[in-house]
Write a structure and sequence with these properties.
The structure is a single chain. The chain is mainly beta and 463 residues long. Helices cover 6% and strands 41% of the residues. It contains 1 helix and 30 strands. The strands form 7 sheets. Strands 20, 21, 24, 26, 27 and 29 form a 6-stranded mixed beta sheet that branches. The longest helix is centred in the N-terminal third of the chain and has 30 residues, at 2-31. The structure holds beta-L-arabinofuranose (FUB). Beta-L-arabinofuranose binds at residues 47-48, 63, 79, 118-119, 175-176, 225-226, 278, 280.
C-alpha cells in the first residue's frame, strides 16, 4: 500500500518534472538565452561528465546530483543520486536534455533506497548503445558482497530509451565504469575500487573476458578513482582524479597498450579553485578540437556534493603530453550576439574593481551578475558572433544606485567603442538600450568597461 502511494507520488513528480523541463525548453527557445558557458547544464546539478561523439553530435552522460530528500535515512552530507539524464549538443553552446534514461527504481539489482547512481559511461557497438553505471546492489553476490556493482542498460539510440539488464556485470565490484574499444575491436572495462582496475570485455560487452587486474605504477598514496582512457596517435592515456594533496586533481599516465604498463606523466587540471573535493573527467575530440569535460561546485559553493559540469578546450604538446587546462567561466563555443550574453561567465577581468556574485543566493540556478565597483574595471567575453543582420542597439540588464556609464568595446580593452550606454539611477533591475555604431560581421571578443561606477550588469544583448 505504502509502496503504491510512493509510486503514485513519484509518477506525478516525474510528470511535473517533465512538464517543467518542456516549459524551460520553450522559455529558452522563446527568449534566445545563451547557454554556452560554464557550467553548461544550468537547471540541475550534474557531475562526472562522460562525453562521447555519436552521429556527429556530442552526448554527455553525467551523474545527477540532487538535494537529499528528507526522511530517507540517508548518510548526512553525502552524494545523493537517484537517476541519470543524457544531454546532447552540436555546437557545445546549446544543450538538449533528453530526460531521464535510467532510474534506481527501475533496475532489478539496484537497491532503490541507496541513491548511489555514481559516475557512468556509454559506448556504441554494432548499432547499440551500452550505458554502464555503478550503484549499490540490493542482494549480496556469490561472495556475500553487497557493495557497488556495475550494470549495463541497452538502447538503439544514444538518447534512449535504455533497457537495464537484470544483473550487474559478474566479477566486478566497484564504481566509475569506463569502456574503451581499441582499433582491433577488443573492448576493455576500467573501474575503481581503491585501485584502478581493468579487464577485457567479451564481444557482447556485458561479460568479462579476462580476470580483473590492478593497473600498476599509479600513485599509491591518496584516493584515485574515475578512470577514463582514450587513445591518440598510438598512445593510450589513462586519466584519473587523484588526491595528491587535500582534494582531487586530474592526472594522467601514458602507455603503449590499453592495459599498460602506464607511466604517470602529468597533471591535466589542478585542484578546484572553488574547493570542490571531487573532480571527474572525460576527454574527446570533436570537429578537430580536443575538449576536457569536468565538474566543479559552481552552483553550490557551500556543499560540494551538488556539482555542475563544465567544458574547456584541451591541447597537446608536440611530444604528446597534455597541456594543463585552467578552468574557465567562459567555457567553449561561440555566443550569438543577439542572445542574452552572460558576461559574468567572462574570459578575463581587470585586476581590480570587479566582482561576480549570484543573482539570488537562494536559487543559484538563476546565475550571476557582474559588479563593476571601480571606474575603468572591465570584463572580457570572448567569441561573440555578429551575423549578417545590421546591429542597431545593445540592451543591457543593469542596476546602479548612483547612475553610471558603460562602454562596449571590441577586441581590446581600449578597442573601438561600439556603444556607450548611459545607465540611470535605479533600485531595481532595469533594461537599458544604447545605440550601436558599425560592428563588422564575424566573431569578436567583447570588452565591457565601466566609464564610471558602481554598476551591476546581468546580461547584454545586441539587436
Ligand atoms: O559522483 C560520485 C563520485 O564522486 C564519483 O563516482 C567519483 O568519481 C566522484 O566524482
Amino acid at each position: 500500500m505504502k509502496r503504491t502511494k510512493f509510486n503514485n507520488q513519484r509518477n506525478s513528480a516525474l510528470k511535473m518534472e517533465k512538464f517543467k523541463s518542456i516549459l524551460v525548453g520553450m522559455m529558452i527557445l522563446a527568449s534566445n538565452w545563451s547557454f554556452g558557458q560554464n557550467p553548461f547544464i544550468r537547471d540541475q546539478f550534474t557531475a562526472d561528465p562522460t562525453a562521447r561523439v555519436f552521429n556527429g553530435k556530442v552526448y554527455v552522460f553525467p551523474s545527477h546530483d540532487i538535494v537529499a530528500p528528507p526522511n530517507k535515512n540517508l548518510r548526512k552530507d553525502w552524494f545523493c543520486m537517484a537517476d541519470y539524464h543524457v544531454f546532447s549538443s552540436e555546437n557545445l553552446t546549446d544543450w538538449t536534455d533528453h530526460g531521464m534514461i535510467v532510474s534506481q527504481n527501475k533496475v532489478a539489482w539496484v537497491d532503490s533506497t541507496s541513491y548511489s547512481m555514481w559516475a557512468p559511461d556509454c559506448i556504441a557497438r554494432n548499432g547499440k548503445y551500452y550505458f554502464y553505471f555503478p550503484a549499490n546492489k540490493n542482494v549480496p553476490d556469490a561472495n556475500g558482497r553487497k557493495g557497488f556493482g556495475i550494470g549495463v542498460a541497452l538502447a538503439d539510440k544514444p538518447e534512449g530509451p535504455y533497457a537495464p539488464l537484470p544483473e550487474p556485470i559478474k566479477g566486478v565490484n566497484g564504481i566509475d565504469p569506463n569502456v574503451f574499444i581499441d582499433k582491433d575491436g577488443q573492448a576493455y572495462l576500467y573501474w575503481s575500487m581503491g585501485n584502478i582496475m581493468v579487464a577485457k570485455l567479451k564481444d557482447n560487452m556485458v561479460e568479462l573476458a579476462s580476470e580483473p587486474q590492478i593497473i600498476a605504477n599509479l600513485p599509491t598514496k591518496g584516493l584515485k578513482e574515475g578512470p577514463f582512457l582514450f587513445e591518440r596517435d598510438g598512445k593510450y592515456y589513462l586519466t584519473i582524479p587523484h588526491v595528491e594533496n587535500k582534494i582531487e586533481r586530474l592526472e594522467y599516465a601514458m602507455g603503449d597498450t590499453p592495459m599498460g604498463p602506464f607511466k604517470m606523466t602529468g597533471v591535466i587540471m589542478d585542484e578546484s579553485p572553488l574547493n570542490c573535493w571531487t573532480n571527474h573527467q572525460s576527454i574527446v575530440q570533436y570537429n578537430s578540437q580536443w575538449y576536457l569535460f569536468y565538474h566543479q561546485d559552481a552552483y553550490s559553493p557551500k556543499f560540494d556534493k551538488n556539482r555542475a559540469v563544465c567544458i574547456d578546450s584541451l591541447f597537446f604538446n608536440t611530444d604528446g603530453t597534455i597541456r594543463k587546462v585552467k578552468p574557465t567561466n567562459r567555457g567553449v563555443g561561440i555566443t550569438a550576439a543577439n542572445s542574452a550574453i552572460q558576461i559574468d561567465r567572462y574570459s578575463r577581468i581587470s585586476d581590480k574593481g570587479i566582482r561576480v556574485a549570484f543573482l539570488d543566493s537562494t536559487n543559484t540556478f538563476k546565475g550571476w551578475r557582474t559588479k563593476f565597483q571601480e571606474k575603468r574595471a572591465w570584463v572580457q567575453y570572448n567569441a561573440v558572433k555578429f551575423g549578417p543582420d545590421k546591429i542597431k542597439s545593445a540592451e543591457l540588464s543593469v542596476l546602479s544606485t548612483k547612475g553610471a556609464t558603460v562602454q562596449i568595446r571590441l577586441d581590446k580593452p581600449d578597442g573601438p567603442i561600439v556603444s556607450e550606454v548611459k545607465i540611470p539611477k535605479t533600485t531595481e533591475w532595469t533594461t537599458v538600450v544604447g545605440k550601436v555604431s558599425k560592428v563588422s560581421r564575424g566573431v569578436h571578443n567583447l570588452f565591457i568597461v565601466a566609464k564610471d561606477s558602481p554598476v551591476e550588469v546581468d546580461w547584454l544583448k545586441f539587436k
